[in-house]
Structures are given as structure tokens and as C-alpha cells.
Design a protein that fits this description.
There is one protein chain. This protein is of the alpha+beta class. Helices cover 35% and strands 30% of the residues. It is built from 6 helices and 10 strands. Strands 3-4-5-6 form a 4-stranded antiparallel β-sheet. Strands 7-8-10-9 form a 4-stranded mixed β-sheet.
């Protein structure tokens, strides 16, 4: 016989703390342990026609990320929904990659492609937010990107769109990587725009001062 629960007995768990037996999605990458958050992007029921009839199963498309730099995609298939989601999460952990960012957005514009789907990613000014559909938004939010403009072209399949988004994120390069790959210093990489702008301002000030001096001497010469 099961023992009756004693009234007034309190649990050792703190209020608001995690329940006993709940495991966090932890992953170790390059000696760094990160905590992943999962989000189910799409669930679909599929059927396989056999001799005795149709056999149904479920497909789960899940994105995981730490909300800072890492994001991954997983796909799972099972006869039950919870098992399909679990498989997709485990698959996503194997495909986690690092995303290059710059102050909450991406460093440059890029277009990702997968099969017939194409996704354009464009940097956004602070306060822009994530301008994207549900599938693209899930990837960008879990990657820690806060300000970005996107446009999905071609296929509307969630799997193709998510993979096209990840393809675009893979193409992003940081300033240091571009400098090393091209073998040129940063002033040459950016065209030394700051120095050119300062020279233009100095030249404009000198011309304005010269014009003012000439205008001041002309009335004096006319009076004499």
C-alpha cells in the first residue's frame, strides 16, 4: 500500500527553483560549456503506405541556441511527438555553429541559399528589431541577433528557409578574418575613409579662410 502524503510536509526545493530530475541542455564547445534553449519550428505528420494500410509518424524541426553566439538545427522523426522532438534536439546539438556578430547585428549583408529557398540578411540600426518570419526569427533570436532586416525568397518550406538562413550566417566574416584572408591592413581594407574625410575638412577650412581674407582686403583697397 502506498504511504499517504503527510500534510504540512515541505519539499527541500526552493521556491522558483528547478524541479528535481530536470536536466539542462548543456553542451561543451572548445572547452566552454554553454546552455542551449530549444525551439520547435515545425511539426508535421507524415504517412507511409504499406501493404496493410498507412503507417503514421511525426517529423520535428527544432532550432537550438544559447542566445549569444551559437545556434544549430536538428531534424527528428518518430511515431510519437515527444520522441520526435527529443531526436531533433539531439541532432541539433551535433550541428551547433558559431555566428559572427557586430553590436547586436551582422557585420555585412549576405544572401543564404538552400535548394529553391533564398534568404537575404541585412544589418539593422539599433532599435530596428528582428524583421523576419517565424522560421527565420527562431534562428536569429537563438543566435543572439537583435537588429536585422530579412527577406525570404523562393520556397516557403520551413526546412529550406531555416537551412538557407543558416547558410547565410555561415557566410558571415569578421573584420579580423577578412584582414587575414586578404592580407591587407585595416586602413587599406576600409579605404582609409577617416583620414580622407579629415583632409577634406582641413582643405575646406583653408579655402573658407582664404576666401574670407580676400573679401576683407578688397573693400580696403577700394577705399584707398
Amino acid at each position: 500500500m502506498e504511504e499517504a502524503k503527510q500534510p504540512g510536509k515541505k519539499s527541500n526545493r526552493k521556491k522558483g527553483g528547478p524541479r528535481e530530475g530536470v536536466k539542462k541542455n548543456l553542451l561543451e564547445i572548445n572547452g566552454e560549456t554553454i546552455e542551449l534553449t530549444e525551439r520547435v519550428v515545425n511539426m508535421a505528420r507524415v504517412a507511409k503506405v504499406v501493404k496493410g494500410g498507412r503507417r503514421f509518424s511525426f517529423n520535428a524541426l527544432t532550432v537550438v541556441g544559447d542566445g549569444n553566439n551559437y545556434v544549430g538545427l536538428g531534424f527528428g522523426k518518430a511515431k510519437e511527438v515527444p520522441e520526435a522532438i527529443r531526436k531533433s534536439i539531439e541532432d541539433a546539438k551535433k550541428n551547433v555553429m558559431k555566428v559572427h556578430k557586430k553590436a547586436g547585428t551582422i557585420p555585412h549583408e549576405v544572401v543564404g541559399a538552400f535548394k529553391s529557398a533564398r534568404v537575404m540578411l541585412k544589418p539593422g540600426a539599433p532599435g530596428t528589431g528582428i524583421i523576419a518570419g517565424d522560421s527565420v526569427r527562431a534562428v536569429l533570436e537563438l543566435a543572439g541577433i537583435h537588429d536585422i532586416l530579412t527577406k525570404a525568397l523562393g520556397s516557403s518550406n520551413p526546412l529550406n528557409i531555416v537551412k538557407a538562413t543558416l547558410d547565410g550566417l555561415k557566410k558571415l566574416n569578421s573584420i579580423e578574418e577578412t584582414k587575414l584572408r586578404r592580407g591587407i591592413p585595416l586602413p587599406v581594407l576600409f579605404g582609409n575613409y577617416a583620414q580622407q574625410r579629415r583632409d577634406e575638412k582641413r582643405k575646406a577650412l583653408v579655402e573658407a579662410a582664404t576666401t574670407a581674407a580676400n573679401a576683407a582686403t578688397q573693400p580696403t583697397e577700394a577705399a584707398n
